[in-house]
Each structure stands twice: as C-alpha cells, then as structure tokens.
Amino acid sequence: MKSGRKVQGRVVDDRGQPVPEACVVLNLWHVHTNEDGIFDWSLAGPAPEKVEIRAYKRYDGRFQEFKGTTTFAQLESQPITIPGHRE
Question: Rounded to whole angstroms, how far apart are CA atoms 23 and 2?
C-alpha cells in the first residue's frame, strides 16, 4: 500500500482567529480541526485539479457555513475563513 500525500489547511474566523473543532468536508472526505484550527488530510493518488470545500462549526450559532471550490495550492497556502454572524 502506497503512502498518501499529506494536505494541511487551516480554518479561521473573520478576525483571523483559529476555529477549533470545525468540520471540514473536502469533496467527500470529512476531517476536523485541532485547537489551532489546523486539519490534516491524506490524499492517495493524484490530486484533483480543484476540490469542493464545506466548512462549518456544528452546534455553534456564532458562525456561518463556508462553501467553495479551490485548488490544493490555495487550500494549503490560504486559510478557510468561516464568517461570523453579524448582529
């Protein structure tokens, strides 16, 4: 069995603060962030050109859901920002 390529990303709020325990769905794969808002994903095989992302903080009404499509280079170099609800 071949070892996969590690993909790492980060989830932050709109103030740039890490969002711990956020759910991140990459295509059909589901991972969670650690206390620093970082998630790891192991990719077996060639990387698709683009990946669909969904990120949310379950059971926390302070955040909206993020949905988008990006490349792996962007995913690894730019954090995913989950917008907060505006009062």
Answer: 27
| C-alpha pair distances (Å), 12 with each of 31, 44, 71, 83 | 15, 26, 18, 9
Amino acid making up residue 16: G
CA 33 vs CA 12, 46, 87: distances in Å? 10, 24, 26
pTM for the whole thing?
0.84
Query: What DSSP state is assigned to residue 73?
Result: H
pLDDT in tens, 39-48: 998 877 777 7
- Report all structural domains of the chain as residue ranges with CATH numbers, in order of start: 5-82 (2.60.40.1120)
Q: Do 52 and 27 meet the contact criterion of CB atoms below 8 Å apart?
A: yes
pLDDT beyond 80 at 85: no
pLDDT band for position 87 (cuts 50, 70, 90): very low
